[in-house]
Each structure stands twice: as structure tokens, then as C-alpha cells.
Specification:
By secondary structure, the chain is mostly helical. The protein is built from seven helices and no strands. It has two domains: 1-32, no CATH class; 36-104, AhpD-like (Up-down Bundle), CATH 1.20.1290. Helix 4 (54-66) packs across helix 7. This is Carboxymuconolactone decarboxylase-like domain-containing protein.
Length: 106
């Protein structure tokens, strides 16, 4: 991964064994099914939008783009959240994702 947020880096530094176990579990979950990589990243983006977590939305948008999802596919994922999480959450996620897209020039 090209970018790790500072809170996560701090967690890894303070709790290396827990971080290893967490990463192992995350990888096992990630590889447990048939979805293609970019699709898995878009699903995780949708979950992050539902959690209204700026850091997770930005992270999963960035990773989806790195795995081959297009900017339009990421934007569509955000629009799909509208009727589930509501307009304010969708608009916030849209802003966060546009910051990622602009920073990366996708």
C-alpha cells in the first residue's frame, strides 16, 4: 500500500502483534470469495461510506483506484449510497473522494 495514515502507523508501532493479526484476518477476509480485486475495493468503499468515516472512505477510494477502478466507478459507488445512508453522508463521502481523485489526478 502506498499510503498509510498516521493513526494506523501509530497503532502498528504501539501494538505490532495485534497489527499483524489484524492484517492477517483482513487478508483472509479479502481473499475468501470470488469478487475481483477492484470490486472488493468498491464494496469496502461502500461500507466506509455507511460508517461515515472520512479516513476509511479516502483509504478505500484510493485503493480502489490503485486496483483499477475508474474515477467514474468510484463516484457511482458514492451515488449508490444515497438511498441507504442519506444525502448528508453521501455528499460528505463525495467531497472526500473528490479530494482523493484530485490529489491523484485519476
Amino acid at each position: 500500500m502506498s499510503y498509510l495514515p498516521s493513526p494506523y502507523k501509530r497503532f502498528v508501532d504501539q501494538h505490532p502483534e495485534l497489527a499483524k493479526a489484524y492484517e492477517k484476518l483482513a487478508l483472509a477476509c479479502h481473499n475468501a470469495g470470488p469478487l475481483p480485486e477492484a470490486t472488493r475495493r468498491l464494496v469496502k468503499l461502500g461500507i466506509a461510506i455507511g460508517q461515515q468515516s472520512e479516513g476509511a472512505v479516502k483509504s478505500h477510494a484510493r485503493r480502489a483506484l490503485e486496483e483499477g477502478a475508474t474515477a467514474d466507478e468510484v463516484r457511482h459507488t458514492i451515488l449508490l449510497a444515497l438511498t441507504t445512508v442519506g444525502f448528508p453522508a453521501m455528499i460528505a463521502a463525495s467531497q472526500w473522494v473528490e479530494e482523493v481523485i484530485e490529489a491523484r489526478k485519476y
